[in-house]
Amino acid sequence: MFKEERRTSILNLLIKDHSVSVRKLAVLFNVSQETIRSDLCYFQKTGMLLRCYGGGIVNRQALSKLITENKIDISGTISTPANKDFRLHREGTKMSGKVCILGSFNIDVSATVPWLPQSGESILASQFGFYPGGKGANQALAANNAGTDVHFIFKVGKDQFSSFALNHIIQSGINSYCAYQTDDAPTGSALIYVSEQDGDNIIAIYPGANMMLTRHEINEQQGHISEANVLLMQLETNIDAIEEFVRLGKLANKTIILNPAPYTKNVSRLLPSIDILTPNETEASFLSGITILNIDDAQKAGNIILQSGVEKVIITLGAQGSLLCERHRTLFIPAWSAVVKDAAGAGDAFNGALAASLARKSDLVSAIQYASAFASLAVEQEGASSMPQHELVLHRMRTQSHDIINIK
Predict the structure, then answer these.
(1) pLDDT in the model for residue 271
(2) CATH 3.40.1190.20 segments of the chain
(3) Counting CB atoms within 10 angstroms of each CB, which of 81, 260, 285, 310 has the fewest?
């Protein structure tokens, strides 16, 4: 093995395990301990590694900064020739089932306000902050916390927010991801107002680098797509990348879930290839032309959407619950009771947990119940990226009972 290949492998181990041992690396690569010490000194000089007795520990802050500034010179791992994108790729397996997620990473700029402002209205916020977000990142975190192995594909810019993005993913517990980077757009961002009264929210999204994913980059992920049980995506990335993701998923006979948010007319190109569509009331209204005011309206909307070729439609109805529409049946699944603090991440929590439950081979109704309980816990926390742990969800399901209503 050449020196560059060995150092590439060592860096991947550092990213995956956060620390390395001189003795173990010498045995692994069949080289002297002095050779390994030389490699670790190289990483120490770049700032990526903090040396300690017998090995070294990754310096996460410095690593993210070097990645962002494209200063790491290890062929094939992170940095590529000038003016080309980089990718940070970490892999691993730790849980039951696998979900592959194509999606967005955004910086959420969030303000908590007494009520949602009207046009021309200025109001004082009681809280303000920057948070990791984006539907893709949120759903990946939800699926991870819900007890499944996740591979997350996303793209960021070369700006001050990209290191924030990578730090969040590294520290989130998501054990497999591929981050691409572009010079052509900044990292995506979202402006969020959250109402103190009921946790309701309004969100404006600037997708930025999320819209720069290429078909070639999606093709590079074919191995992860073929290994997954479930594919999950949203509409915060560019449609041609999503189409390629869906195409590869269909070829591999995977269960494909699309969360059609934020709504765009381009979604009609995808619908015939989607197994499960998960719109909220607003998105279902756009897709069907039906204004949804109650469960009857939701049923009508769901039946219209099924005519587009989608196999199953799950319309999420907020605090009411969700409606499963299939060709042979319609079921209403009530929501779990919750004390809402911030509803901004409710849909992402639901979708990530739904995908995780299906990846574990749960039946669809059980998966919806699990996702609903998961989302009920998520809205009790502040921040769209705040996701509960699997054990808490199981506890909530044990302590509350639900009657599923067969509408048709």
Answers:
(1) 97
(2) 96-102+136-182+210-405
(3) 81
Does 348 belong to an annotated binding site? Answer: yes
Is-contact 142 173, C-beta < 8 A?
no
Residues of the chain with CATH 1.10.10.10: 1-63
pLDDT tens digits, one per residue of 47-94: 777 777 678 877 765 655 555 454 443 333 333 333 334 455 555 545
pLDDT at 108: 83
| CATH of range 96-102+136-182+210-405; options 3.40.1190.20, 3.40.1790.10, 3.40.50.620, 3.40.50.2300 | 3.40.1190.20
Q: Does domain 1-63 have CATH number 3.40.50.1820?
A: no
Whether 348 sits among the annotated catalytic residues: the reply is yes
Residue 101 marked as a ligand binder: no
Q: What is the pLDDT of residues 150-166, one digit of tens each?
A: 999 999 998 878 877 87
* CB-facing half-sphere around the CA of 32: CA atoms within 13 A: 3
Which residues, at least 6 apart from 31, have a Cβ–Cβ distance to it below 8 Å? 6
Looking at residue 57, what is its pLDDT? 77
Give the residue ranges of the chain where pLDDT is below 70.
1, 15-18, 53, 60-95, 383-385, 408
Q: Is 120 annotated as a binding residue?
A: no
